[in-house]
Specification:
This protein is mostly helical and 85 residues long. It contains 4 helices and no strands. 56% of the residues lie in helices and 0% in strands.
């Protein structure tokens, strides 16, 4: 995340961090064990992903709507699918 361009940061954030969050949410240990292994930038991205899912009500449709709607609580960012282009 620190050294990559926008596309690499998007892939690392959405492709790795969000995948770990989603998968770990289905297990009793949850997301907490992973936090100790994150550096400052990945930890920040981790919590931004959490905020986005909360803003979206926990559904993918809600997340897409939250990304499309400007919010003072969340900074503007590339939409999650744009790193594939």
């Amino acid at each position: 995340i620190r050294e990559g361009d926008d596309d690499a940061r998007g892939a690392a954030t959405v492709g790795v961090l969000e995948s770990v969050q989603v998968q770990s949410s289905h297990h009793p240990f949850g997301q907490d064990p992973f936090l100790e292994w994150l550096g400052p930038l990945s930890r920040q991205a981790w919590f931004e992903i959490d905020e986005l899912w909360v803003a979206g009500g926990g559904s993918l449709t809600g997340v897409i709507e939250a990304e499309a709607t400007p919010s003072p609580a969340l900074p503007p960012r590339k939409r999650w699918w744009q790193f594939w282009r």
